[in-house]
Specification:
Radius of gyration: 19 Å
Number of helices: 12
Number of domains: 1
Structural class: mainly alpha
Strand content: under 5%
Helix content: over 70%
Shape: globular
Number of strands: 0
Length: 263
């Protein structure tokens, strides 16, 4: 099974790289646009740190690592998942899922991974290089084990982010809205830009127990900065597995309500 899906994904990659070679402007545009976006966020926080030594209990060096990790997460999402999930509610509402449902593979795998955005791939390398620079130049006293834990939790965050997004998108099966409530999710992602410590207590509880944005960036960094115990590593992975199971179940429920354009 794993070998079969690996071969299929390899074909997705080949097609995506072929398309990128034909539309080079998109490749350069995505790269430049995201670099300016990342620079503006770093500049924003550097201005704040020009007036205070800590923010939410984090110094400037810790905040730089936090922000660079967010950039890596964002660029990975844009490269692997984002375009596919952007189109998913439109496929649902136009009734054109038939092509994907009749394929002898998992439909959610097909719909979620068929487009690989080569134009965003350069930003993965750029943001990761920026992360390594901040990591190696920090005075926080981080170890190689901390780096491995960080990478594990970042991969975990990538899947959690998209499982939660699917949870919002699937509402399109019932709402009739062109995009479900995906726009609401995109608005919520603003909370990822900042450490959870700066938010009021009631909002932090929501971000841990209902919409788990804290488990994506804030809690992993609290772990490696020694602000939370290692038990939170296992809690983070358990949360991701739960939302993955929930997204799969809701997808199957949604398909039972689906009406194709030909029906």
């Amino acid at each position: 099974m794993l070998k079969k899906y690996s071969r299929i994904y390899w074909q997705f990659l080949r097609i995506s790289f072929s398309k990128a070679a034909s539309f080079r402007f998109d490749f350069y545009f995505r790269t430049i646009m995201d670099i300016f976006y990342y620079a503006s966020i770093i500049l924003f926080f550097d201005v704040i740190y020009g007036h205070t030594a800590t923010l939410g209990g984090w110094n400037q060096s810790q905040m730089h690592i936090f922000l660079a990790s967010y950039f890596v997460l964002d660029s990975l999402d844009m490269t692997i998942f984002s375009t596919n999930l952007w189109w998913l509610p439109l496929h649902i509402n136009r009734g054109d899922l038939d092509l994907y449902l009749t394929k002898p593979i998992n439909s959610l795998f097909y719909l979620g991974l068929k487009e690989f955005q080569v134009g965003s791939l350069i930003n993965v390398f750029f943001s990761y290089a920026l992360f390594l620079y901040f990591w190696l130049s920090s005075q926080v006293g981080l170890t190689f084990l901390d780096l491995m834990i960080h990478h594990l939790l970042l991969i975990n965050a990538l899947f959690l982010f998209n499982f939660v997004r699917i949870f919002f998108i699937i509402s399109a099966f019932w709402s009739g809205s062109p995009r479900g409530i995906d726009e609401l999710f995109i608005g919520f992602t603003r909370f990822l830009n900042y450490p959870e410590q700066i938010y009021p207590n009631w909002l932090r509880k929501i971000m841990v127990s209902i919409i788990p944005f804290s488990f994506m960036i804030s809690i992993p960094h609290q772990i490696i900065f020694g602000q939370k115990s290692v038990i939170w590593i296992f809690i983070s992975i358990a949360v991701t597995l739960f939302f993955g199971w929930l997204a799969t179940c809701l997808w199957k429920m949604g398909l039972s309500k689906y009406s194709s354009a030909s029906s």
